From TrEMBL:
Gene Ontology CC terms, in alphabetical order: outer membrane-bounded periplasmic space; plasma membrane
Domain of life: Bacteria
Keywords recorded for this protein, A-Z: Cell inner membrane, Cell membrane, Membrane, Transmembrane, Transmembrane helix
GO molecular function per UniProt: glycolipid transfer activity; lipopolysaccharide transmembrane transporter activity
InterPro entries: LipoPS_assembly_LptC-rel (IPR010664), LPS_export_LptC (IPR052363), LptC (IPR026265)
Protein name per the record: LPS export ABC transporter periplasmic protein LptC
Amino acid sequence: MSRRMLLALFVLGMAAALTQLALWWLTPPPPPSTFAGPPRSSYTLYDFHLTALGDDGRPALFLRAPQLDRRNGDDALYINAPRFVLPQNNGPAWQGHSRFGWVNAQGTELKLLGDVHMLQPAVDGGPPSTITSHDITAWPREHRLASAARTEIQQPNATLVGIGFRANTATRTLELLDDVHGTFLPTTHHAP
C-alpha cells in the first residue's frame, strides 16, 4: 500500500471517530423511564365505615367494607366486598352487597361490580323486594340505579326477570328494559 492510501484511510478513520464522538456529545440523553409499576394507593383503609352526605346534608349512602383504596391520579375509591345502605326519603332503605365497588372522586357515582344483591324490607304492609343483578351503577344523591345486565326482581308472590333495568328509588319506580318475563303466584284469601 502506498503512503497516500494509508494517509487517506487514516484520515477517513479519524473522521468517522470524530463524527461518532460528536453524535454522543450532541445527542440528548434518553428520557428516564416513567413506568413505576402498578397504580399505587395514596391510602388504604381496612374495615371501614363511610357515610356520604347529600346536598341537603342528610346521609345519601352508608358504606362499609373490609378494604378501600384511594389511587393517586384519579382520586377514585376502589372497594372490596362493599356492603351498602341507600337511605330513602319515603320508606325503608335499600340494603345490599357486591363483590367490588368504585366511587368517583366527586362521590356522585357508585359502581357495584360483580354480582349485586339488594333488599328493601317491607313498606307500609307491602312485601319486601329483592333485586339480583350484575354491575349496577348508582347515583345516590339522585336516588337512581341502572344496569345493562340480567336482572331479577322478587317479591313473595312475584318474580320478574329482564335484561337491564333503571330505577328511581325516590319515586319507587323500577323499569326492566328488555326481554321481560314475569311469574305471578296466586294470592290466597282466608275466609273470616
